[in-house]
Design a protein that fits this description.
The protein is of the alpha/beta class and 255 residues long. It is built from 8 helices and 10 strands. Keywords: ATP-binding, Nucleotide-binding.
C-alpha cells in the first residue's frame, strides 16, 4: 500500500523580532512568502504551512502550484520527513525518493565513485543494490575517469550530473520532485529529461513542484494550489492551472 496522508499540518519557522511596520505591512500586500504571526512564545514566526490536509494514494500524480514562497518546497520536505510539522500528523507508507536538493548526501572530499554509494545509502538504497547499479549510474553520468577524482574538483554541472544519475536509479514507490533539474549541456539535459519522465512514470505516486505548466501537464493528473501555505485549490490538473493563471492576473491588476 502506497500512501501519503497529511492531517492538519502547520509548520512555523521562528524569526528575529520584526520591528519595521513598513516592512510588515508591505509583506502582506503581495503574495510572497508565508504568513507572519505570533507563535506560542509571543515571538514572530513565519507560518510556512497552515492547517493543510491531503491524502494521496497509488496512481496519484500531484502538481504543486503557487507563487514563490507559497510553501511548495516546504510541503515536499514535510512529505520527505526532512521537516517535522509544528502541529499535525504525517503518515507515509512506501519507499520515498526525494529529489529536492542535489547537494544532499554528497561528500566533496570523496571520489565520484564513492559518492555513488554515499548518496545512494542516503536515499535508502542498500549496498547490494548499489553494487548492482554502480556501473549503470557511472555510465549514465558520462563522467568517465573523473569518477576517480574528489568531487571538489568537479564543476557544478558535473556534480549535478552525478547526483541526478544516482537519484534516478533508486527503486521507489513515492517520488518527490522539486523542479526539473538542469544538468549541464543541452544534449545531456535532453537525456536527463527523458530519464526523469521515465522515472516519474515508474513511480507509484508522484508529487512535483515546477513552474513549467507543460511539464506538470505531461506528468501529473492532479494539482494543489498553495497561497501563503494554505490550500487555495485542489483538483484536476487543467482546472487548477487555470485557477492559478486567473489569480496571477488578478494580483497583477492589484485586485
Amino acid at each position: 500500500m502506497v500512501l501519503v496522508k497529511l492531517e492538519n499540518i502547520t509548520l512555523d519557522f521562528p524569526v528575529p523580532a520584526w520591528k519595521s511596520e513598513r516592512r510588515r505591512s508591505s509583506s502582506q500586500e503581495k503574495p510572497i512568502g508565508g504568513q507572519l504571526s505570533a507563535g506560542r512564545s509571543g515571538h514572530t514566526v513565519v507560518r510556512a504551512l497552515d492547517q493543510l490536509s491531503l491524502t494521496l494514494g497509488p496512481g496519484d500524480r500531484l502538481a504543486l502550484l503557487g507563487h514563490n514562497g507559497a510553501g511548495k518546497t516546504t510541503l515536499l520536505r514535510v512529505m520527505a520527513k526532512l521537516y517535522a510539522p509544528t502541529h499535525g500528523r504525517v503518515t507515509i507508507q512506501g519507499r520515498v525518493a526525494p529529489l529536492l536538493n542535489l547537494a544532499f548526501g554528497m561528500d566533496m572530499d570523496s571520489t565520484g565513485y564513492d559518492n555513488i554509494f554515499i548518496r545512494g545509502l542516503f536515499l535508502g538504497m542498500s549496498k547490494a543494490e548499489l553494487r548492482k547499479k554502480a556501473d549503470a549510474i557511472a555510465e549514465f553520468s558520462e563522467l568517465g575517469d573523473f569518477l576517480d577524482l574528489p568531487m571538489r574538483t568537479y564543476s557544478s554541472g558535473m556534480r549535478a550530473r552525478l547526483a541526478f544519475a544516482i537519484s534516478t536509479h533508486v527503486e521507489t514507490d513515492i517520488l518527490l520532485l522539486d523542479e526539473v533539474v538542469a544538468t549541464g549541456d543541452a544534449r545531456f539535459f535532453r537525456k536527463a529529461n527523458q530519464k526523469l519522465e521515465s522515472f516519474a512514470q515508474e513511480s507509484k505516486l508522484l508529487v512535483l513542484a515546477s513552474h513549467s505548466n507543460e511539464v506538470l501537464r505531461d506528468l501529473c493528473n492532479k494539482a494543489l494550489l498553495l497561497e501563503h501555505g494554505r490550500v487555495k485549490a485542489f483538483g484536476a490538473i487543467d482546472e487548477v492551472i487555470e485557477t492559478y493563471a486567473s489569480s496571477k492576473i488578478v494580483n497583477a491588476k492589484g485586485g
